[in-house]
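Whiteboard transcription, Tuesday session. T.W. wrote the structure tokens on the left side:
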């Protein structure tokens, strides 16, 4: 794995292990929105906040398909490591530009 992939892996595993520390969108309001399963990202106008690792962790986790997020921790780690090894990412914007929700790749087609 590349350094960027290792960074992505560590941040996603941290969020998965500590999911109770994050606020989910469905707890904010009762509306049945499309992204109700996502973690809530508090809006900020400051670049210092939007570039922080906590903000980025939530953005990375929200990029994953819901079925992938709901996997058991050990399966989650194994599948994520396999995907990050198969699909090499050299920069964070490259990972964030991928649309894992609808594309045909290792994250959207999960065989547990």
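and on the right, the sequence the group agreed on:
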């Amino acid at each position: 794995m590349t350094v960027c992939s290792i960074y992505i892996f560590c941040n996603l595993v941290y969020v998965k292990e500590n999911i109770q520390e994050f606020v989910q969108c469905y707890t904010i309001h009762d509306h049945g929105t499309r992204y109700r399963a996502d973690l809530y990202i508090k809006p900020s106008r400051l670049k210092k906040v939007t570039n922080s690792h906590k903000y980025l962790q939530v953005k990375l986790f929200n990029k994953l398909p819901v079925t992938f997020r709901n996997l058991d921790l050990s399966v989650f780690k194994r599948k994520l490591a396999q995907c990050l090894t198969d699909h090499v990412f050299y920069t964070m914007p490259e990972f964030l530009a991928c649309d894992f929700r609808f594309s045909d790749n290792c994250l959207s087609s999960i065989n547990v």
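Someone added at the bottom: Residues 13 and 27 are 22 Å apart (CA to CA).
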